Protein: DNA/RNA-binding protein Alba-like domain-containing protein
Amino acid sequence: MTIEGETAVIKQASIGNIGDVNMNGNGNGNSNENIMKNRIQVSNTKKPLFFYVNLAKRYLQQHQEIELSALGMAITTVVTIAEILKNNGFVNEKSILTSTVGTKDVAKGRTVQKARIEIVLEKSEKFDSLMSASQNANGKVENKQ
Structure:
């Protein structure tokens, strides 16, 4: 596992096998079959918050659920993204998994424990109507009274 900023490069497993994945990312099945296309690994240094919010909405247009994942200081960013999506009615929270990951710190020559979070969100019943309403606005500000 390598660390770039606060984002770990981890082999990804399907949601059904998430409990079977060890810290090296190896699941019980063929890892090529289980790679998720709906996982967003968040960094608190690389992209602004709303980049990830908008990316999550785009992923939800193609998938029934998405997984937000982060390490260390990026955990607060993931929680904020999930809360924005929930409070605006786009998603429902499905599960939250926390753990620690041992990573090799090359500079210090030792293993460092990092906190890790994975939040699985599923589309809400009103996701499609909310998305079409925001796309119909075409950049116009709606007057809410």
Observations:
- The first strand starts at residue 3 and ends at 4.
- The radius of gyration is 17 Å.
